[in-house]
């Protein structure tokens, strides 16, 4: 019993190494390619707990690749650089280990898994992560309670839970389901990959609301987006412009507004 | 991943693959086995051993003569190595069965141990004590002989007959005579003829009029002896208004040699009667090099002779080196219904050519086919189905859906649907899909913390859901576990 409590404490509390220097994610000079196509060319980024970083930039700049590097997509090959996440070498970890360490990606195109019940999927994910962290499995009644609580918070219809993962969901439902999953898995770092794409303004507001509810002093976000619009609702601490595989400008939220006016044309000059 | 880690992982995977056939043990029991070889004398000897009446011996001999004139069918998409029928022993029974055990106490304890290993709920006490939630009456066929049938007395109270085929021949000869070979005639095909000549035992079920069988009936088949074939026959009759759910499970030890299993199942469904027949087939599939494994050539057919008769075949086929099997429905009675739900999984070098035949003869007959084929490793998985609407089958309907799922790059999925329609009022629907477990699906699952192996098993389970929900509860759990085991090593 004592043993268990001790473990829980360690996980609930902060990892001492990042408590000290207060940096959660340190991306150092990352070069990455898909096939022969070099996409990231020396990208640097530091994220502290609780911060929201928006990554903007023109099509093909490497925004989604950045997310995929962090999540560990196999076809993206990192050729140079390092990523430190809470004192661990993130690039050495398997995809599922990264997830269990607290990296979550809200996908731009969430895939459908026919016949697999949404709830079942989510419980399997949660328990896989808990197992990795040395916690006991969550039984179904406790899980159900948790789900009920979060579904209210996310303003989601509960019939989506009983349906197969993303199958027959509308675009908005899929995105909302991603945020709902995030609320259950409670990651330390959430990457939102163009979560606003394909959403009308009402759906956008609901998704942003969900994200805002999950913001806290310990959880960080990397919000990848084309448009300033999303950042009206999820207000970032930093805005970075990614172009040609590098971060070329960093500012606060006013930079996003500036980009909205000027576009990305100035990058070519 | 570091090289060392990779190596360790490989060793682990290797270990698991080698362990993956959990039913592959051999039971050391003294047995009474015929020397290999097939001729008329052997047919006579089997019949004599079973003290059969003359009519049955004559029937066997007729079948044997017919078989001699036939050739191994080659139309299936299977590579069948030459089978030496003279290298097979056609009869084997555990020796302790010489005087036929009268109760469980007389059964060789080693045999009981075997079934305990297999998880067969043999002891009635155990079942009654509530270890198993639902009552299941079990008939067990070990090599060639049915060794025990449970719950006989309780079933007898409601008039249900559930016994071994041999007993049925002795105690209910009229019923056997009336139905034997009536839906699968001896000359139907090469393997049905062989079975008719040399079949050794099997199960017999009769559900009387307007009786709903009070419990699930079940048969477990086990091949134990080396170089033996297993040729059992199952005969189930549901009289007017009767209802029964029947399950069969099969396993065999791991052996390097191929072994032959050629069974025949005949179902008769009369007016307003229903039979639900579920199979979980887990014969030894051979090793990862394709060595060994059971050749499974089975003929299963149901005759819906009555009006409103209904039959439902559900099969989960994960075992056998070769599976050749087409559980079929003859829909003779008006408004009769036939259903076929199938999951067939092949891995390594396994081959499966399986499907169904729906023969619509009566008016307003309806059939449903849902087939899910999963291929992994270097295996080939074929769906072959026939829907025939005869001239008189006014208003017949069929819905067919066959889906294939591919895992990896070296396997194959094939679909051969045949439709013969001679009545313009018929409505036929056919849907087919082929899909792969996509990288995107796996990435998505892994990004949520789920391992590749668990993700694959989850996706496969989702793919099979429509069929699993047709299985009785306990079998559904077993079937899912079986798929997971069969898929081990298929990923990564």
What does this entry show, briefly?
The complex is a heterodimer of chains A (269) and B (492). Chain A has 269 residues and is of the alpha/beta class. In chain A, 41% of the residues lie in helices and 26% in strands.
Description of the molecule:
The complex is a heterodimer of chains A (269) and B (492). With 269 residues, chain A is of the alpha/beta class. Chain A has helices spanning 2-12, 16-21, 63-71, 95-101, 118-132, 140-154, 159-162, 171-185, 201-214, 229-233, 253-262, and strands spanning 25-34, 37-47, 52-56, 76-85, 88-89, 103-106, 113-117, 164-165, 189-193, 220-224, 238-243, 246-251. A six-stranded mixed β-sheet of chain A has the order 6-9-10-3-11-12, sandwiched between helices. Chain A has a four-stranded antiparallel β-sheet with strand order 2-1-4-5. Chain A has a two-stranded antiparallel ribbon with strand order 7-8. In chain A, strand 1 (25-34) and strand 2 (37-47) form a beta hairpin. In chain A, helix 8 (171-185) runs parallel beside helix 9 (201-214). The model of chain A is unreliable at 1-18 (pLDDT under 50). With 492 residues, chain B is of the alpha/beta class. In chain B, 26% of the residues lie in helices and 34% in strands. Chain B is globular, with a radius of gyration of 22 Å. Chain B has helices spanning 3-19, 40-49, 54-68, 109-118, 124-128, 152-157, 165-171, 173-179, 190-198, 439-447, 452-468, 473-487; strands at 31-33, 92-94, 136-142, 145-149, 161-164, 201-207, 216-222, 232-238, 243-251, 258-261, 264-269, 274-282, 293-304, 310-317, 322-325, 328-331, 337-346, 351-360, 366-375, 380-389, 397-406, 412-421, 427-436. In chain B, the strands form three sheets. In chain B, strands 5, 6, 8, 10, 11, 13, 15, 16, 18, 20 and 22 form an eleven-stranded mixed β-sheet that branches. Chain B has a ten-stranded mixed β-sheet with strand order 4-3-7-9-12-14-17-19-21-23, with helices on one face. Chain B has a two-stranded antiparallel ribbon with strand order 1-2. In chain B, strand 3 (136-142) and strand 4 form a beta hairpin. Residues 1-19, 96-102 and 121-134 of chain B have low confidence and may be disordered.
């Amino acid at each position: 019993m004592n043993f268990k409590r001790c473990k829980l404490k360690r996980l609930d509390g902060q990892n001492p190494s990042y408590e000290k220097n207060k940096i959660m994610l340190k991306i150092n000079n990352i070069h990455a390619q898909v096939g022969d196509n070099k996409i990231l060319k020396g990208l640097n980024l530091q994220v502290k707990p609780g911060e929201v970083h928006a990554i903007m930039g023109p099509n093909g700049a490497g925004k989604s690749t950045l997310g995929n590097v962090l999540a560990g997509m196999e076809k993206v090959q990192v050729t140079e650089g390092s990523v430190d996440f809470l004192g661990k070498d993130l690039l050495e970890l398997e995809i599922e280990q990264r997830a269990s360490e607290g990296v979550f990606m809200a996908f731009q195109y969430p895939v459908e898994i026919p016949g697999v019940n949404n709830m079942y999927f989510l419980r399997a994910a949660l328990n896989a992560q808990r197992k990795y962290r040395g916690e006991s499995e969550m039984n179904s009644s406790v899980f159900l309670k948790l789900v009920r609580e979060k579904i209210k918070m996310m303003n989601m219809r509960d019939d989506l839970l009983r349906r197969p993962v993303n199958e027959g969901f509308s675009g908005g439902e899929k995105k909302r389901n991603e945020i709902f999953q995030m609320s259950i898995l409670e990651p330390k770092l959430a990457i939102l990959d163009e979560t606003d794409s394909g959403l009308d303004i009402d759906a956008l507001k609901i998704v942003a609301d969900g994200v805002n509810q999950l913001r806290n002093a310990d959880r960080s976000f990397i919000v990848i987006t084309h448009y300033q619009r999303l950042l009206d609702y999820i207000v970032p601490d930093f805005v970075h412009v990614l172009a040609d595989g590098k971060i070329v400008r960093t500012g606060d939220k006013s930079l996003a507004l500036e980009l909205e006016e000027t576009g990305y044309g100035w990058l070519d000059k | 991943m570091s090289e060392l880690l990779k190596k360790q992982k490989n060793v682990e995977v290797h270990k698991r693959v080698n362990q993956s056939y959990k039913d592959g043990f051999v039971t050391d029991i003294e047995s009474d086995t015929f020397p290999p070889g097939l001729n008329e004398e052997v047919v006579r000897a089997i019949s004599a051993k079973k003290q059969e009446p003359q009519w049955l011996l004559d029937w066997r001999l007729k079948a044997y003569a017919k078989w001699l004139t036939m050739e191994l069918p080659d139309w299936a998409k299977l590579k069948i190595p030459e089978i030496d029928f003279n290298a097979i022993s056609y009869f084997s029974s555990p020796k302790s069965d010489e005087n036929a055990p009268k109760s469980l106490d007389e059964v060789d304890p080693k045999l009981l141990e075997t079934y305990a290993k297999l998880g067969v709920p043999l002891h009635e006490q155990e079942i009654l004590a509530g270890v198993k939630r639902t009552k299941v009456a079990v008939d067990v066929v070990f090599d060639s002989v049915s060794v025990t049938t449970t719950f006989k007395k309780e079933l007898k109270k409601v008039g249900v007959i559930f016994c071994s085929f041999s007993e049925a021949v002795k105690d209910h000869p009229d019923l056997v005579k009336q139905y034997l070979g009536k839906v699968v005639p001896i000359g139907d095909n090469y393997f049905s003829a062989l079975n008719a000549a040399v079949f050794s035992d099997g199960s017999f079920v009769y559900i009387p009029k307007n009786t709903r069988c009070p419990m699930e009936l079940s048969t477990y088949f086990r091949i134990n002896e080396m170089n033996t074939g297993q040729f059992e026959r199952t005969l189930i009759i549901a009289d007017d208004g009767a209802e029964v759910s029947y399950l069969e499970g099969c396993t065999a030890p791991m052996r390097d040699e191929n072994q032959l299993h050629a069974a025949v199942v005949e179902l008769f469904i009369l007016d307003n009667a229903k039979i639900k027949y579920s199979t979980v087939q887990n014969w030894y599939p051979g090793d990862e090099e394709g060595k060994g494994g059971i050749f499974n050539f089975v003929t299963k057919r149901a005759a819906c002779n009555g009006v409103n008769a209904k039959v439902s075949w559900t099969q989960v086929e994960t075992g056998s080196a070769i599976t050749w099997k087409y559980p079929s429905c003859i829909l003779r009675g008006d408004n009769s219904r036939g259903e076929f739900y199938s999951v067939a999984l092949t891995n390594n070098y396994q081959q499966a050519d399986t499907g169904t035949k729906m023969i619509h003869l009566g008016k307003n007959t309806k059939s449903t086919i849902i087939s899910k084929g999963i291929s992994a490793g270097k295996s080939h998985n074929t769906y072959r189905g026939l829907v025939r609407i005869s001239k008189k089958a006014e208003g017949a309907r069929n819905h067919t859906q066959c889906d294939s799922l591919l895992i990896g790059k070296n396997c194959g999925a094939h679909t051969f649907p045949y439709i013969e329609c001679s009545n313009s009022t018929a409505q036929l629907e056919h849907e087919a899909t082929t899909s792969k477990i996509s990288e995107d699906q796996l990435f998505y699952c892994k990004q949520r913390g789920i391992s590749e192996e668990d993700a694959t098993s989850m996706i496969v389970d989702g793919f099979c859901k429509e069929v699993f929900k047709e299985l009785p509860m306990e079998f559904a759990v077993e079937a899912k576990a079986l798929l997971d085991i069969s898929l081990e090593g298929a990923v990564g």
